Structures are given as C-alpha cells and as structure tokens.
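Bug #77: duplicate submission created two jobs. Keeping one. Sequence:
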Amino acid sequence: MKHIVEISVNRIKVHAFHGCHPQERVVGGEFYVTISAQVEVAASAWRDDQLEGTADYSRFVSIAQREMSKPSNLLEHVAARIASAVLDECPLVMEVSVAIEKENPPFGVFCQGVSVKIVQKR
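Kept job's structure:
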C-alpha cells in the first residue's frame, strides 16, 4: 500500500540579498520561503515510526537557507534552485512546490510584498 503525504515547511524567514537593484544587494531584505512536497512515504515511516521512510523536513530548511544565501537577481532563479535541490537530495519526494515572498520590495509605494511559486516533479 502506498501512502502519499504532503509535507510543508511554512514561511521560513531569511534575510537575503536578492534583487536587480543595487541597494537590494547591499542592505538585503526579509524573505519567506515555503516548501511543500508530495512524498511517497515508505512503510517504515507510517508503520514503524522511522524517519528514513519519509522526507526529513529539517532538510528542506537547510536547503532553503543554503540557496537563499546565494544572491540572485530573480526570485524565480532562487526558487528553481531550491526545488531542484529538494528533488536531488530527498529521494522520496515526488513533487515539490517552492514559494518565495519578498517583503517590502523597493517600488516606492506601500506593498505587502511580492512572491513567486514554482512546482517541479520528479
């Protein structure tokens, strides 16, 4: 019997230096990363309570922190790197969704933020 589980880590807060404007690379800004993954959970997890049979969501956090620490012009680029890394490093993940929110982008007007979301499948 297969068990498909959605595992999500919501709004990991990271101070990072992404953007096309020079000031964004100097002062940085607050970002929130949400990673949701469809995981084919092995019997060892759902029956025997063993972490090895599922995706360790602390790994998602480590991947997000690592990739967010590499400055990029585009959030699309960062989101794609995170999604690819989750698929590469977490073999039980069948599909991953990565959303990145940028708080207070430099538009010169009040804005709650901007976001991008990418979905990648194995």
